[in-house]
Design a protein that fits this description.
CATH topology: TIM Barrel
Helix content: 25-40%
CATH architecture: Alpha-Beta Barrel
CATH class: Alpha Beta
Strand order of the largest sheet: 3-1-2-4-5-6-7-8-9
Distance between the termini: 25 Å
Structural class: alpha/beta
Number of strands: 9
Number of domains: 1
Shape: globular
């Protein structure tokens, strides 16, 4: 393990933990991954429904040097890192670029989960193996903050994802519209993968997975992957990160 240096740049971190990646990414759902959850978020999604499921990441976090983070990844022995938040691209700049380049030098595959509001033109982008954009649907209350879909779709590659979390049929209609837009943009070039992720339904409403799949097949959206959050099925009652 390499010794930390005294002038290593720092990032604000909420938590570090070893688990499986329950979301879509180029290495596949269920892949073991070392999570680096950065602190802070610029959106406040799902306010009508109690807020998002990582409210604890909105605080200032703990300052950790890039060298320390790299040492923790090395100590885990895991060849994959999931960089998430909050919103990790709020900290884009020299420190984030140094972390990404350090991970690439160590042969670590990086997937990054981002909320859709910040363009993928950050320093160190070339070191991210799979960029996963969580494009907010109407029920989130944050659709207006998203990057223009056409520009985002054109700027991502075949190992990247645009994921839509769907609470209800209005969200489904919105996401289906984006899929139809994407069809017009496919000109033989490699394109990002589109994924639909159902929220777990409540007693009153919701879009359960079986309803989503039936709609998707009936509408012949054959290019769409269904993303069921695997970690929530493995640990349905978890009160801490696993």
């Amino acid at each position: 393990m390499r010794a930390p240096t005294t002038d290593s740049p720092a990032l604000r971190v909420t938590s570090l933990f070893l688990s499986i990646d329950g979301e879509v990414n180029a290495r596949g759902q269920g892949t073991p991954s070392f999570f680096i959850r950065l602190a802070g978020c610029n959106l406040r999604c799902w306010q009508r429904f109690g807020g998002c499921d990582t409210l604890y990441s909105f605080g200032p976090g703990t300052s950790m040097s890039v060298d320390e983070l790299l040492a923790r990844v090395e100590a885990s022995g895991c060849p994959k890192v999931t960089l998430t938040g909050g919103e990790p691209l709020l900290q884009k700049g020299a420190a984030l670029a140094a972390l990404l380049r350090g991970l690439r030098e160590r042969g670590v595959f990086v997937s990054m989960e981002t909320n859709g509001s910040i363009a993928p033109d950050f320093e160190g982008r070339e070191c991210v193996g799979s960029l996963v954009y969580d494009y907010k649907c109407p029920s989130s209350g944050c659709t207006a903050a998203m990057q223009p879909f056409v520009a985002l779709f054109r700027s991502l590659g075949p190992s990247d994802y645009i994921k839509f979390v769907l609470r209800d049929l209005a969200d489904y209609a919105f996401a289906r519209g984006r899929v139809l837009e994407a069809r017009e943009l496919r000109d033989g070039r490699p394109c990002p993968v589109l994924a639909f992720s159902p929220m777990l339904p409540t007693a009153e409403d919701g879009l359960p997975p079986d309803t989503l799949v039936a709609r998707l097949l009936a509408d012949r959206l054959f290019e769409v992957q269904v993303n069921v959050q695997l970690h929530k099925y493995v640990w349905p009652d978890a009160t801490t990160e696993v």
